[in-house]
Amino acid sequence: MRLATYTLKSEPAHPRIGALLGNQMLDLYACECAMGGRNVIPGSMKQLLALGKPGLDRVRMLLDYAQTHAPKLVPGVLSKLDAIQFLPPVPDADKFLCVGKNYRTHLEELKKNDLIKELPGEPTGFIKLNTCLTGHDAEVERPATISRLDYEPELVFVIGKRAFGAKGKDAFDHVMGITILNDLTCRDTQKREVASGSRFWTSKNAPGFGPLGPYIITMDEVGDPYDIWVTCSVNGEQRMRVNTNDQIWKLPDIIEHFSRLLPLEPGDMFSTGAPGGVAVGKPNAEDLYLKPGDIVECAFEKPAMALRNRIIAPKA
Predict the structure, then answer these.
(1) How far is 240 from 152, CA to CA, in rounded Å?
(2) Number of neighbouring beta carbons within 10 Å of residue 258
(3) What is the pTM of this model?
């Protein structure tokens, strides 16, 4: 299944949670109302994930119902994708943790630019704030004070079951699905932030610097999460393509390490690091940094999903 948080363009103040049905979005709560009887679907993605397997089973039942009764459903239960605005799939996670220095190819780029000295002996991470997140097809302002805005497509795991003191062998029991983050990074300031040892990077948390989504793909559709080709294109030109098997710390390492002292709750997310191929690692980096007008697309090849955003100049 593919789950999303969205609004109708005609009702932008009313967030909804939905599931993709063909080329339309099914409003889960509205579908339940159309069925009559007991309401199970809550008002947010985080609350839905907290229901665990029964919640996902309910979504599957609603998809089956909508498939069968589509011609009879009232307007708004099913919406065309061009009528909706995607929000981050989980816009209000309690914790969004990003694992750093986690792709071998990216480490070589960072070393060449004096952004790291050596590989850490265990997973490291920093915090991504909800206030920096934005959705698929949203515009992202590049502040006038920076000129080196870089793209970083990343595989994100979404927690669906509480993990505290979890063991690596049980890691995937706690994961509900995956999504994509474009961890936009201001290279103008990153070197100073890394040198300071900060775990709160302004260059990662500026408004809009966290495009996420458009969907959470449930794990039953994922296959092997460590055989996913991740790509990034700018204005239709592919800039990078790397496989997730290049990761150093994989999910069993990550969950066991962070859940030793930190309870992980449904809706929490782990971004698993930037692959190699970003602009900062190229000899012509200054030509590749993102500029107003650029359209950036981060994607998984299989299961296929793409996250697209336009970079714009600051609005007056």
Answers:
(1) 10
(2) 20
(3) 0.93
